[in-house]
User: What shape does this take?
Amino acid sequence: MSFEQKEYYAPVPATTRGQPVRLSTDPEGTQLVYASGKSIVVRSLAAPEKAWEYTGHTAATTVARFSPSGAYVASGDASGKVRVWGAGGDHILKGEFQPLAGSIADIAWDGESQRVFAVGAGKGFGHFFTYDTGNAVGTAMGHSKVVNACAMRQRRPLRAVTASDDATSVFYHGAPYKLAATLKRDGFVQDVRYAPSDEWFVAVGADRKVLLYDGTTGELVRQVAAGAEQHAGSVYAVAWSPDSRYVVTAGGDGTCRFWDVQQDCAAGVVRLGAGPEHQQVGCVWAGEHIVSLSLSGALSYLQMGSDAPVRVVSGHQKPITAAALSGARLLTASYDGRVCAWDTDAPCTPRVVGTAAASVDAMAAGADACVALGTNDGGLQLVAGDSLQPATALGTAPRALAYAADGALVAVLHDGGVAVVRQGRATRLDLQGASAVAACGRVVALGFADASVRLYALADGAAQLEPTGAAVAGHMREITALALSADAQLVASGDGAGKIVLARAATGDVVTTRWGAHTARVYSVRFSADAQHAVSAALDGSVIVWSVARPLQRTVIRNAHLGGAHAAFLLPGGVVASAGADAAVKLWGVSLC
Assistant: This one.
C-alpha cells in the first residue's frame, strides 16, 4: 500500500498577547508565510485552503521570509537558529546558523538576496550574515533590550533599521553594516518597514504614532497624519501598499487603520471587534490582498473603503486533542477549547463552531449527527449544527467517550470511573481503572489500566453495563485506544507502548498481535466502514493503515504530524483524514489492498 498527501489544512498563526507577529509574502505576493508551532506555513492568499508546510525546525518557529529572488526562505525559531532553505522542490537546506542565543523576532533580506539580518533576544540582539556561508557582515549595535523588528533597503546605498523595546530604532549603513544613527521615541518600538520604493521607512510602537523617516539618511520626516484620530492602543505592525503611497497599521485597540503618506491624512479604519481576542498583532499588504492577524489567530482580509473584513480565515492555533467524524463532516477540538468543523469531501477552510469552557479531551459522534465533547473541567457539551450547547456536569473530566444504542453515551473518566449518560443525566457505574472505551449498538468495549480489554452489553433502557465474559489478552501496558467495527464483530485495542491487538468481540479470541509498528502511545484506532482496514494514530507522529485480511500489510505515514498524531479516520475512496499536535488537518490518499 502506498500513500500521498492530498490536502493540507493549515493552522492559523501562533500568537502571544502583547507581542507582534510577523506575516510576510513571497516576492510575487501570492502566498502568505507565517510561523505556527514548529512549522512554517505557506498558504495561498487567493485560495487559503491551499497550503504547504516546512518542518525542518526542532524548536517553535517565530518568523519566515522569502528572499527577493524567491529562491530561498530564511526562517527563525525560539532557540535562536536561522535556517535558509530552498523555496521549491524538496526544500533543500542551504544552511543553518545560530546568530542569537535567544528567540529570533524578525528576519530581513537585502535586495541582492545575499545578506540576511536576524534580530531578537540574546547577546548582541541582532546580526548581519551572508545567506550561504554565514559570514558576519555587521552587528546590531546600539540596543539595550530585545529587538522586535528589522528592515533592509532593497537598493544601494545599502541601509538597515531596527525596532526595539528600548524605545529606539537604530539606523545602519552597509555593507558591512555599522551604526549610523539612533532614532529615539516614547515607548516600545514594535515594527519598522521600508516602502517598496525605498524612499521612506515607517516605524510604529507603543506611543501609537506612525513616524515617517527618510530611507537613505534615516532622518525623521514627520508623524503621518498627526492631526487625525490615532489608535487607542499600541500599534503592533505596519505594512506598505505596493505603490508606496499608503500604509496599514494593526493596533491593540482592535482596529486596522489606513494612512495616506503622500497626502498626510487618514484614509480609513476597519474595526474588527472589542476584547483581547480582537487585538490586531500583525498585518501584510501584497497586491490586492491586505491581511490582518487577530490575537485569536483569525486572518482578516481587508479592503480600503470597507469598514468590515471582506473575508475571515480561522482555524486552530493550539494542538488538536480530539476529533470526531460525522458523515462527511470532521469536527476537531484543540487544547484551548476551540471546536472547528471541516468538510472532507472538498477543499475548505474550517468553520469555528465555538469555544468550549475548557480544554477538550474526548469527542464522539452519534448516529443522528450529534457530536459530544468532554472537557477537562468535568463538563460534557453537545455540538448541534454549528453551535455548542450548554455543558452538562459529569463531576470528573471524561477521558474517552463513545455513543452506544438509543443515544446512550458511555464516558470513561480521568479517575478511572465509568458513567453512562442518557437524556442529559449521568449515572456512575461500579467500575474502576478504566482508560478507554468503544461502542457499537449495545456492545461496549472497555480498556483498563491493568492492560486488559473487557466486553460488555448495554442494558435495554437502563444505565447499566453487563459483562459478556469476553476479554482480550496480549497487552503489557495501559489500554489507550479502542475501536469496534461497524458490525461489532471485531475489536482493536492500542496501548501505551504502541502495540495494537486485533480480536473478535464476541469471544475475545485474538486475530493478530502483529500490529506493532508504532513506537509510542496509541491515541486513536478506527475501522473502515467495511471493517477490511483500520487506521491508527500515535504519539510518535505516525498514521498507519492496517489490513485486517493481511495483518502483515500496512501503510506507514511517518511524521504525519509533528508532536504526535491524535486522530485518524478512513474515509470513502481510500482517503485518510488525520489531525495532530501541529494543529493541522491532513488528507492522505492511500491505495488499499
Summary: The chain has a mean pLDDT of 96. The chain has no helices and 57 strands.
